[in-house]
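In this section we walk through a basic example: taking a raw amino acid sequence and producing a predicted 3D structure, encoded as discrete structure tokens. The instruction is simple. Fold the sequence below.
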Amino acid sequence: MKTGILLTNLGTPDAPTKAALKRYLKEFLSDERVIQPPNKLIWWLALNVVILNIRPAKSAQNYAKIWDSFGKGSPLLNITNLQAQGVKAFLANSFDNLALEVGMRYGNPSIDSALKKLQHKGCEKIVVLPLYPQYSDTTTHSTLDAVNKALNNWENMPEMLFIDNYYQNKGYIQSLVNSVTEHQAKHGVPDKLMISFHGIPQRFVDNGDVYYDHCVDTAKLLAEALNIKKDGYQLCFQSIFGREEWIKPQTKASLMSLAQGGVEHVQVICPGFSVDCLETIEEIDEENRAYFIQAGGKKFSYIPALNDRKDHIEALSNIIAERLI
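The resulting token sequence is shown next.
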């Protein structure tokens, strides 16, 4: 039996242009798992009349800053492809009859197109690994929706194994530890390690999304493995969008408060991002660096995402291998 492996990530526009961002944002912000609008009609009007006529131009400028940062094109797509190559090579040492594809929840290559490739290769079993260590309805469940929708069109439904989180995996945590210690060997030990995750509205957590708990647990596991005391790190959340209340504390406010309180040296790691992308390269390493320095901080550094580090590739491969045995 041939087994297919599908690595998925959030997605990326096709180009750093207003037109490409409009297409991408329309797909992204039309996903009810992401927005969960109390009133669908009002949200549709706000999205199509206001947001998609204003936000794409600004987003395109931000994407233009990071485009080609990791090879020509989208950093998120380029690095995910490198991860896929690494995982495929690692698993080939122990398993035969494997096929691996990359699919994006929004944009290209789509999850549907990736699954069709696995179908054409004769895969009767498919292991899906969304590259989100922490589960959230907004990301993980949305990916499951897309996978199920695509598979429902298959004449012969394959066996499907869906990995919905891996934040407790020892290899993943050790990869984070290694990345921190290597960074600090070059840049010193900070006064505070900021552990920043993408935020979600507080309403989603109140309605049962376990994402916040997974982030808290990840931060604790990382701090314990690094032997950092409670006052040596801070959990925070970034990428706030819209006017409603989001989970706290927020990264921007936390950095400014620390700087104003006399903290001179911070380092930021983003364990929820498996690859570097707009939210890490531009938002953290540029925007939030500026907030910290302008508020009186002296030294700021961003610890890169795990990307295609060897230890990360091994961790991802082992997570998948457990489902192949």
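Looking at the output, two observations stand out. The CA atoms of residues 103 and 109 lie 5 Å apart. The chain is about 50% helix and 15% strand. In the next section we compare this with other chains.
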